[in-house]
Structures are given as structure tokens and as C-alpha cells.
Specification:
heterodimer; A: about 400 residues; mainly beta; Pectate Lyase C-like; 20-stranded parallel beta sheet; 5 helices; 33 strands; about 10% helix; B: about 350 residues; alpha+beta; six-stranded antiparallel beta sheet; about 20% helix
Chain lengths: ~400, ~350
Amino acid sequence: MKINKKIIYFMAFIFISNFSYGKIIIEPGPNAYDRIQEALILAEPYENIHLSSGYYEIEDGLSLDIDNVTLSGDGLDKTILSFKNQKSGAEGLLVTSNGVTLSDFAVEDTIGDAIVVKKANGIRFLRVRVEWTDGPKSSNGAYGLYPVESKDVLIDSCIAIGASDAGIYVGQSERIKVINSEAKFNVAGIEIENSYFAEVTNNIAHHNTGGILIFDLPNLPQQGGHDILVKNNKVINNDTPNFAPEGNIVGKTPNGTGIMVMANEKVILEENYISGNATAGILVVSYLDEYEDDNYNPLPNKIFIRNNQLNNNGFEVDKVRAEPIALLTKNKAPEIIWDGVTSFPEWIGLSKQQRLILGSNKTKDKKTDMINLNLMTYALLPWFHKIKEDYDDYIGEGISLAEVNFKTKW
Amino acid sequence: MVIKYSKFLFFLFLITLIGSVSYAEPHKQLSDYNFFKDIKNQIPRDETVPYKIANPLFSDYSHKFRFVHMPLNTAAEYSYNNVFNFPVGTTIIKTFAYPIDERNLDKGFLLLETRLLIKNENGWIPLSYIWNNEQTNAFLKYTGHTFNVSWISSNGQEKYVRYRAPNVNQCKSCHEINNKIQPIGPKGRNMNINFVYPNGEANQIDFWHDKSLLNNIPKLLKKNPTIWDDTKYEINERARSYLDANCAHCHQRGASASNSGFYLNIEENNSSILGIYKTPVAAGRGSGGLQYIIDPGKPADSILLYRMLSTDPGVMMPELSRNLQHEEAIPLIREWINQLK
């Protein structure tokens, strides 16, 4: 058999090109939806679909269901998917496959949520912007970046603006890092809900209604949120009045909330810079609405707060959404607020739990102050009700959390 | 040396070539499957069995022509609550069409799309074929298609809809349970009704059984399904049948709305999980400013009805396959919520 070199090279080329990961480049222009969606459907695993810089007008929801695909653009201010004229589809982009990377593009003005990721093992958002460009309005979509029921969630260097619920929202997920990102003009800037093992670090949450919310809610497939680290974030001037459509849980977020923890266990808030939030710097609360769910624990537990810088929070408490705080504090609310709701045995002194644990925190020109609203007594024995404001009573040893390690290799 | 190396490469080349050819590509044209005697009039060949289901999904008043095609000498396994277990090689065929004039169906139909679910060794594959303007054939399209359709409805009104054929990913959002694509309609409780075949009317399950298309049928078939718009049944049963058919493909455990914790499959009986006094989780403006998914006795305060009434894609439910209100179902759900306590 005699085969000349050229043919060998040709065959080698065919072989390699079949197995190397392809890159599909899409340019702006007419039929953008069809061209992008077709690429997303026909993609092979590990392929890169690249959207060149420009403005893409999309009328229907896009979706991706192939594992390990990268969807990239030329930058979060250069490659823009605009859904201003969206006619169908409940979100801008839906990802339902594993190991996907989304990077360097923007999704604007979707009719519902911007980017939803469901049941993914491994999802990365890198330098992605989601925005409703008319500013905060209740007709904006609910969530910006919205991974749910997922594992290994990385949100790095992203921007979320104008969501009528949460700009960055991670729900019912596990192993999560939200880092180096910015959330502004949302109702909730960054929200971690019913999730396990999360790190929220080095972010800026400003001009939202509430900066960073760590929530746990009843009647959901995954609940009992725990092991959440909120560290080294700037949570400042969250001053956008709540514009969530009523009926949603974030609609209850008081105007001007810095960091709010509801009904989670093992949460560390440390080295955050929290300033200029009108209702509270740090708010730790239980879930007080009625619910029917035997498996749900409505009380926060082991919330450890240390080494934060807390300045000028609680100067104008939201009288509607934070009525008890407004009633039980005078001119200015303390920097750290706990509703003081406990289990009944704790309340009558039969058992003890470290629900709130304070380390040292700093405040300009004075000692950091706190209040336990003692709402149990307020509700059960109103005549005997007293607030508790002795910071030292809550100083304790604290807790530590293991580092979050992803199992996914992107 | 060069020769040896080239042999090796040649071998790899062949493998690669075979590998890239062996993908079973779906047919580009619907006619290539040879399901129909008369494709334009949707008259099936003998091996392609037409059927209907008791409680279909509302899809903007489109009419649906359903067929199943199983390989020769194979049969499906009966199940009452689950979709029949079909043999590998089965294709389920559904054509979406609008009547020219619903008062007189003899005037014909405008065919829009034919969806296939093809079962291979690894599971079900969804495909959508879009009909051409000449109505002579339909062509594979992965990205869906938009039609602007008008027709005369049964009460003589001229109606208009922006009909959206789904892309194949959107197929999955309704058809996927626990990461597996499934048909939705052909389950025992949906099939136990009569169909008018060319040789006369018969119960569908009996007919399939007689043709050896269905095994493991219980001696006594369970009772007839409650048909949502048949007023001889109780409101509660009718409403639950409607919600099961129109919502539960997503709103059940393991399906695409599992994260809501709000499930409407007919077997569900926990009132919170059914939405009674349940607050919304991630509804956004879909909540319409209301507190509960179902506020018993107060349909106007129930998010469920609010989202059925809406045609705004950011609010309405179902999220896909609906652009119009289902006017006939709204009073039923209103009345159902009204009489809940």
C-alpha cells in the first residue's frame, strides 16, 4: 500500500478536526433568534458558540440543553441580547444541561426572568450582565441570574440591574460561589434561598431594596438552608424603595436593608462593609408567616457575625415592612437587629440555643450596637415585654465553615 | 515507517468516517416516514393508528390529529396512571391544525406543524415538522416557527392567534420527567374513550387490544375518565382533570416546575402542595400582587386563576403553547376555587 504524504496529512486533519472542539461564530443581524437557537440545539458537547459583538434582537426564549457547551460573547457591554420585543418564552435564556459556561455577554429587558438554569450539575456565569434598562419597575422580570435546583454554581464578575425580585438569585442549590459581582437597583441584590454550602464574597450590593438576603422558605422540595459564608462584601446605600409585585416574599424586604438572614442555620457574616441602609445593617429574623409544613424550621440558628464594619444603618426604619423595629426602636435602630423569636422551650428557659452569635464588629465613632426585639414575649406576654440591647450577652465562640469545593471540572 | 504510520492513520480515518455516518439522522420531510395514505388530509395507513385523549392540553384552540405507529408485531404495555410503555421503534405523531371554519369542518384545515416523538434504545426523541404554505408536506425544523393564523370559531367569530411551534428544547420542558423525555397523553385513564374508526366506533383500548397493540389490560377497565368539560361530573373532579392535563406535565415532582413545590397531578392530595393558602416562591410579577396560589372561596384573589387569565408571556400559565385565554375553562376553575373551603 503506497500512500503519499499529502493524503496522510489530509487524513490526519480530518481525524483531528472531527475530534477537536469546534467553535461556532454567530454575527448580529436578521433572524438572530433562529440562528442562535439552532446553534444551541445542534451544538456538540464542549463546543463554543460565540456571539460576536453587537446588538441581537430576540423575540422568543432561547434554551440550551447540551452538556459542557460554552456560550460566549465579546464582553458584557459589547455582545448584547435584547429582549425588548420578546413575544413568547417565559425567560431570556434557559439552560438545562450540565457543565455549561456562559461568559462575556449581556441579556437585557426580558419579559420574565433573564437567565434561568435548572437542575444543572455545574454552571458558570463569567462576566455576564443582566439588566432591565428602564431602571427599577415592578413590570421588570423577577430574576436576573437564576440558577435553581443546581449543584456547583459559580457566578463571577457578573452584574445584575433592575430585577423586580432578585438580581442574583440562587435557589434550592448546593455548592455555590457568588464572587466579584455587582447588584444594583434590584429589590434583592443577591439572594441565596433554600441552599446549602454557599460563599458570597467580594461583591458590591448597592441601591437595591435589600443588599444580600439569605432566606429559607417552607413548602419547597429543598429546604433547611445552611452553611453560608457572606464575606468581604460592600453592602452600601441600599435605598431603592421596594418595587416587588405584592405576594412575593421579597416584597416584604424593608426598604434599606443591608444583609438579612431568615431561617437559615450556620451562617457567617464577616468582614463586610455595611453602610447607609435605612432600616438595618444586619437583620436576623425567623419566618413569621403562617405555613403548613412539618419539615420546615422557621428559626435562624448559629448566625455568627464578626469583624464587619457597620456605619450609619437604621436611620429611617421602614414603618410598613419593619413595623416591629419601628415600634421598638427610637430615633435610630441599632446596627444589628434580631427578632428574638425562639422555640417555646428556649423561651421558658428549658433549653438554650446559640441562635445569634456576635464577635467583635466595628462602627465609626462608637461601639457597634444591637437589639433583640424579643418578639416572642411581645406576642405572648406583651405586658412583660422588654427589648434586650446588651451586645455582650450574645458574644460567643462562633462557628467555622468548610471551604466550598466544586466537583465539576469545567 | 511512513507506511506503517499511514496504515494506522487510515484505520483511524475509517473509524472516524464510520462514526460520523452512523448517527441516525431524522428524516428531513414528514412524507419520508410514510405514515399516511393521504398526508394532506391526514389519512393514515393501516399501521398508523389514530387516537384521541379524554383530557387534552389546551393549545390555543388548535385541533390535534394524533396517531401512533408501532413496529410490526409489537405491542405497548397498559398502565392506568402512566403513559403506556411503548416498544422501541414507536413513533407518536401529532399534527396541529386550525379549521378554516369551526362550524363546518368539511371546509378543511390549515396544517401548521406535526410533532413526532420517536422511541429509540435510549429513549424518546422529539422532532417538529413545519407544514409548507402549499400544504403538501412538512419539513424538519429544530428552532420552532411562528405562524399568524386566523380562523372562524364555532360561534362564528373571526379569531386570530400568533401560534408558536416550539423548538426542540421547549418540547423537553413539558415532556421531561426525571431527566427523561416522555409522551404525556396516551395513558389508560386518558384512552378509555370511544373513537370513530373507518369501520365504526369502538372503545380505543378494546380496539388496540383487538389489534394486538396493547398488552396487560386489566379484566375490568377502571371507570371512565372525568372529562373536564362534561357537566355530568362533579366540579371538583372536572377541575382536577383539567389541571392535571394542563398543568401537571410541569407541576409534578421531577418535572420542570418541581422547584415550585406546587403540584397539580391528579394523585396529589396535600392541600398546601395543591396551592391552597400556599404563597408563591419565584413567581415575580406572575403573582399579580396576590398572596396565595389558591385562596379558597376567593377566585379573584387566587394566583392560579390570575395566571390562567393572563396572556402576558411573563405572567401567563402555561408558559408555552398558549397565547389566548381558554375561555371555556376559566369559569370552571373560578367555580372550583369558589366552592373550596
